Each structure stands twice: as structure tokens, then as C-alpha cells.
Fold:
Amino acid sequence: MPVQVNVFLDTNIFMNMKYDFSKSPLSRLKKYVSLGIVRLFTNEIVVREVEANIRIDTATESAHLKNAVKKHCFREVLESDGYELLSRDFRQEKWDELIISKFHKYLEDTDCTILKNDNIKLNEIFEYYFQMIPPFESREEKKHEFPDAVVIKSIKNYLSEYNTEMIVVAKDTGWEKAFVDDANIELIDDLKKALIQISSKYGGTEESKYLEFLGTESSGIIDHINDWLYNLDWDECFESDDSLDIEGIESVEVENIKLIFDGFEYIDKEEACARFKAIVSVCIEYEYNNYDYALYDKEDDAYYNVKHGTANEKHVCPIEFSINILNDGEDMDINDYEFEGVELSSDTEVSSEFREDSEEPEPDDEYFAEKTYTTCLDCGKPIGIDNDGLNGFCENCGKNH
Structure:
């Protein structure tokens, strides 16, 4: 059972979808990403090419629209109330900036990995050019394929570095020839075909139906995880620490939740159980007592010189859970969630900040302040909580050791 399918989108795929990010197959792909089924990739060259083509295409369409209005509308109509907007210059509407912003929002929402070209060696690209290695099928006709050659090389470098596979969605014969010997790359020329291929990787028709349902429920799944996290007993999740005692959780802020689909535990026509892993980024503020320099009095069975403070920690940790889905033949519904808990440790910690109280707390009883529990090894003076210089010496003698 595959965990994630890597998918790369070339410039012409966005163009063929007419930059429709809400109702085209790009929207369905986004659902697969939200479930963790797909990890999306593109290249920084593709991003710039899409931006350039959006500007060209919107300028062309604006001109066509202006000419169509001028050709087919009577002047009386254009100058009448309610139709005056038809007389405006559509080329000044800045539709290109609107579409470009939606393009970048799509890349952000899908957490798209944009491959960089910093490590591409120019001499290798020229070698492909002079030897007419695809995408340079013809030296005379393919000089403009240099950007494609760089993008193709970035894909191969990434797959080689991470030893993984990828579906590349691009409609270009040069790309097809360039990847002909790469067993870890599957080139598909249409996004709809790619989505069918992705669905087939998870089995038969029943699995596809359940996946489609989960895709429509992805935001609700995130909300349910979020609610579960805020109701979690977080002080029980921390790795035990002999020197630090968590006194109480002050606040919890869930910054990000990323789903990764992990397959089906079981599936039939009436019921299915889907496994997920969620990568959670969370910030936790808590009060603590630090016992690093504390002194223990056996007679009183109490610790002295305990430091109190407040800590802020950020953790990125995995959460495994399952979702039980019921299917009555007409509708599907999520029946139950089962979580396996959260473990916070030095491995999950990203950053931390500790702020100890500036003033030591006053003893609860004057008796504790006056009480002595040993004598100084140097001067023989009784040592209590007020004059303990640590390591068996009083405060004055401890400076000499």
C-alpha cells in the first residue's frame, strides 16, 4: 500500500486547466494533497513561466473581450444606464494579478515543493544540447528548450537524492524521451489521467469511492484533530525529566496540521477503516519547578531552593489515528475516530524558551529560613537555606572552592 504519491506539474498543465483552481482537476488534486495521498512538486522555472503566460493570456483575452463588445453592441446600449461598464477598457482591470495571486494561493494551500535549480551544472545542460539529448531533439529547433532541460534535471536530481518515485504530468514529446530510461518516473500527459492512476494505486472501485468521500471531509477531519488536541491532557505527554517538574499547562496553540494517508486497515461495501498520520506543529506554555540546585531535607521530607519559572516549547510531532466510515449504499458517514496519543520529547522539540522567576520565593514558614541541616566543611558554621554555598560549604567559604 503506497503512503504518498509524488506528483510534478509542468507549465502546460496549468495552462490547459485555464488557471481554474476551484472546479478543474486541480481542485481534486488538492483534495488528495489535503489527505496526504499526494505530495505536489513543481519547479521555480515553471512558476515563472505560469506567471508570464497568465499575463500574456489575460492581455489577449481582455483585447478579445473589448473587441467583441465594440463589434456586437449598439452604441445606444453601451451608453445606456446599467450597461456603461461594458465601455470600460478591460485591459486595465489587472485580472492577471488576480489570477497570479490565486495561483500562488494554490501552491501555498497544497504545500507545493518548488524544486530549486541552484545545484544544476550548466556544463551538463550544454552537453545535452550539443549531443541532442532530449529534450534537445533538434539543435536548430529546440534552442528554447533550455528551461525544460533544467527542470528535467532538477526532477532527476531530486529523485536520485531521495531514492523515490514520481508521476510527472507534462505534455511534451521531449520530456517523454528524456525520461524513457527512468524507471522511477511515470510521465502522464493529462491531469485527469494522472488522477485516475493515483486512485488505481490504492486498489479497486470501493477504495476509490471511500477516497473520494474522505477528500470531501478533509477540512472536517482537520477540525476534529484540532478539537482533540485542545482537549488533550498535555502534561501527560511530556517525556519524564527528573530535574524538571511541570506544574501546569498555561496555554496550547496548534499552528499547523498536515495529513498523510496511510492506507486502509479493512474495507468492504458497508464499512471501511482508514489509517492516517498527522504531522502537528504545536506551541505549549507551562509553569515548571526546576530541581537542578534543590536541596532535600530528610527530616522535613521537603525540597528547598527549587526554581520556579515559565517555559514555551514548540514541537512538531506525528499523531497516528484511524477513521471508521459507514456506507449504507447511498451515503457515507464518519462513525468514529481512534487516536493513539502524543509523545513530546527532545526529538520532537523544535525550539524552547525558559524564564525563571527573578526573585526566589519566600519560605512559607520562618522556621525553614532559620533551620540548619549541616555544617560548613571549612569553618564549621551551621548551614541553612539562607547561607548554603553548595557542595558542603557555606556561602562565604563556597567562593573559595
Observations:
- DSSP finds 13 helices and 14 strands in the chain.
